Amino acid sequence: MNLETAEYIRVGTMFYALVERPTISNSTEKIMIPWSKETISNDLGKEFLLQVKKFFSFICIPSHLSYSREIKNFYNIYHPLDYKIDTGSQIDIKKLEKKLKYTFIHLRHIFGDDQFYLGLDYIKILLEKPTQILPILALVSNERETGKSLFLKYLRKIFSFNATYTFAETFLNNFNADTYGKLLLLVEETKSDNIQFVEKLKYLSTADKNTFEKKGQDRQEGDSFIKILITSNFETSFVKISPDETRFWVRKIPSIVKDPEFESKLFQEIPDFLNYLVRIPYSTKRQTRMWFTPEQIRTQALLNLMNNENDSTKYKVFEILREIHENFDIDRICIAPKELALISKKIHNRNFITINEARNVLKSFGFEPSSNSYKYIGYDYLSHGEFVSIDRVGRYYTVDFSQIAVFFDENDESNVTI
After folding, report:
1. How far apart are CA 309 and CA 302, in angstroms?
2. Where is pLDDT greater, at 44 or 240?
3. 203: how many CB neighbours lie within 10 A of its CB?
4. Inter-axis angle of helices 116-128 and 148-159, to 10 degrees?
5. Main-chain phi, psi angles of 13, to 5 degrees
6. Contact assessment for residue 379 and residue 339, using Cβ atoms and an 8 Å cutoff
7. By mean pLDDT, which of 39-48, 212-221, 257-266 is the weakest?
8. d(Cα 48, Cα 217) in Å, to the nearest integer?
């Protein structure tokens, strides 16, 4: 490709060149580069400008089976797939299945025999219903060589520029224009105890609109249909979620014996796999806004994550209650969930417990709130490390310390065994 054979377009008042950029794999990928009107005129002549296609603006309409680049004089920035899918011809399903040896090995490794067909549904939905909301899929393992990163790479290979990588530490960056119009957000090596990180994950997984910002430019609102996949080596602590969370689908991925040829063989099967997906029926029906029900995607890995976080929350609540018990030499402690959350924020910084988490811990041990708002002696924690009592008015829980004292290890006062 040279200057004469490149394609040029005008979107609004800006000109762009559409060129084939060489890749390390000896193929090419089509990209759009800003190109000035003056440069086009100098290189190809003023008359050439009359031939340049003109569009009002950019839009992003995701589609894989009936893709259109130009929609009513708007330029669609969503990328077409690199593979041709034959939706019209009669193809024998059994013959296709015989061509998908490595595909089925990989998908059964990722989703297991128990959720293999849910995994097929997940990818089929990405292909056929790109605007459908889906749960946050988390692939976790403490082991090495599991293939969880390969699954992200596999989806990136299928959906090309419509998938983008990021890392947990850069996820909260305000400049997120690179995620606009993306189908998949692939978050590698996830480990974050930042509550904002989890809340942003949950928001993006269900939002149909989002604001996008590029450095040096104003923020703009646009449609959002992004699906989030994350990997982590921290099976039970990669994020902090509550026991009632329904937006996470967590799978523990076992280790594998690495085959250096497996990846290339897997990728070679993609065209047949896509033709296979459009011909098989869904094994599930849409029952929730995220398609799958919480029961369908509940796994032991998800329960382990919830229970680990629940244990940590209990420890923090008990730690505060013990400090109050020892500082004021009292066995009956009157305290509100809001007080526990505020004290925790001062002690635990970013890892503080929320009001709802504190309330759930108190209720889980049978403590009940007062029937109405009353005067009581509450507590606070000062910046220099001192607990103080404060006269308060409100609804509070009465904690009998003897009911939780059994959870403390008398041989190690710094630990709570739960």
Report:
1. 11
2. 44
3. 12
4. 30
5. -110, 5
6. yes
7. 212-221
8. 31
Q: Output the average pLDDT for the chain.
A: 85
C-alpha span between 103 and 271 (Å, rounded) = 11
CA-based nearest residue to 65, from 85, 39, 93: 85
205, 247 Cβ separation under 8 angstroms: yes
Beta pairing, strands 332-335 & 397-400: antiparallel
Which of 325, 336, 148, 115 lies closest to 234, judged by CA? Answer: 148
pLDDT band for position 217 (cuts 50, 70, 90): low
Report how far apart, in Å, the C-alpha atoms of 312 and of each of 123, 145, 301, 392, 404 are.
35, 29, 17, 28, 15
pLDDT, tens digit (0-9, with 9 covering 90-100), for 164-188? 888 766 666 655 566 778 899 998 8
Q: How far is Cα of residue 344 from the mean position of the Cα atoms in its chain?
A: 27
Distance CA 310, CA 360 (A): 10
Write the Ramachandran bin of 347: left for phi over 0, alpha for psi from -120 to 50, otherwise beta: alpha
3-state secondary structure the chain: CCCCCCEEEEECCEEEEEEEEECCCCCEEEEEEECCHHHHHHHHCHHHHHHCEEECCEECCCCCCCCCCEECCEEECCCCCCCCCCCCCCCCHHHHHHCCHHHHHHHHHHHCCCCHHHHHHHHHHHHHCCCCCCCEEEEECCCCCCCHHHHHHHHHHHHHHHEEEEEHHHCCCCCCHHHCCCCEEEEECCCCCCHHHHHHHHHHHHCCEEEECCCCCCCEEEECCCEEEEEECCCCCCCCCCCCCCCEEEEECCCCCCCCCHHHHHHHCHHHHHHHHCCCCCCCCCCECCECCHHHHCCHHHHHHHHHHHHHHHHHHHHHHHHHHHHHCCCEEEECHHHHHHHHHHHHHHHCCCHHHHHHHHHHCCCCECCCCEEEEEEEECCCCCEEEEEEEECCEEEEHHHCHHHECCCCCCCECC
pTM of the predicted model, to two decimals?
0.73
Residue 283's closest CA among 94, 122, 158, 92? 122
Phi, psi values for residue 380, rounded to 5°: -145, 170
Separation of alpha carbons 161 and 64, rounded Å: 13
- What is the Cα 316 distance to its own chain's centre? 27
Q: How far is it, in rounded angstroms, from Cα 209 to Cα 221?
A: 7
CB 89 within 8 A of CB 45: no
- pLDDT tens digits for 363-378? 878 888 999 999 999 9
Quick check: 272 and 100 in contact, CB under 8 A? yes
